[in-house]
């Protein structure tokens, strides 16, 4: 069962400043199954520019799904999440917080700000790959994602 059988690739925005995590996440998300395009930005300021179609992102597509790290330079993931959920054009995009933090305050704040899911990144590479595959399998084959707004 897929949410997008025979149609366009799922657009995913990965917001993460750790090059290793980006590489591992990209590989897991692009393996087989549902076709997807993964765009990557390295901080919260760039994420919001991407989502608002500003500057070099003027002709980009809104993502179907956002994977958001919390601990980033310039603007934290929680600040980005708050801005996404306050913006009528962006608030319906599912946001999965994918972070190293397992602090209960971060979990509570993320859900208070309407995060769709909160996932703690495992330190072990095989476990990270398993978690990413679980996210991909669940979010791209089971969950019905909202329609994309900007094309």
Structure characterization notes:
- With 151 residues, this protein is an alpha/beta fold.
- It has one domain: Response regulator (Rossmann fold).
- Helices cover 38% and strands 17% of the residues.
- It is built from five helices and five strands.
- It has a five-stranded parallel sheet with strand order 2-1-3-4-5, sandwiched between helices.
- The two termini are 25 Å apart.
Helix-strand layout with pairing:
Blueprint: E1 10-15, H1 19-30, E2 36-41, H2 44-52, E3 65-68, H3 77-86, E4 95-99, H4 104-112, E5 117-120, H5 125-142
Parallel strand pairs: 1-2, 1-3, 3-4, 4-5
Question: What keyword list fits this structure?
Answer:
alpha/beta, Rossmann fold, 5 helices, disordered N terminus
Quick overview:
By secondary structure, the protein is of the alpha/beta class. It is built from 5 helices and 5 strands. Helix 1 (19-30) packs across helix 5 (125-142) and helix 2 runs parallel beside helix 3 (77-86).
């Amino acid at each position: 069962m897929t949410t997008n059988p025979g149609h366009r690739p799922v657009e995913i925005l990965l917001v993460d400043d750790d090059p290793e995590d980006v590489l591992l996440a990209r590989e897991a998300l692009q393996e087989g199954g549902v076709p997807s395009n993964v765009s990557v930005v390295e901080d919260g300021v760039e994420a919001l520019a991407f989502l608002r179609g500003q500057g070099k992102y003027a002709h980009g597509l809104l993502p179907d799904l956002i994977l958001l790290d919390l601990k980033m330079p310039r603007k934290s993931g929680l600040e980005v999440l708050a801005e996404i959920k306050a913006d009528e054009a962006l608030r319906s995009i599912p946001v999965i917080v994918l972070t190293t933090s397992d602090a209960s305050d971060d979990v509570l704040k993320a859900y208070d700000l309407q995060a769709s899911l909160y996932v703690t990144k495992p330190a072990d590479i095989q476990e990270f790959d398993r978690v990413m595959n679980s996210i991909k399998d669940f979010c791209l084959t089971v969950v019905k994602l909202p329609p994309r707004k900007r094309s």
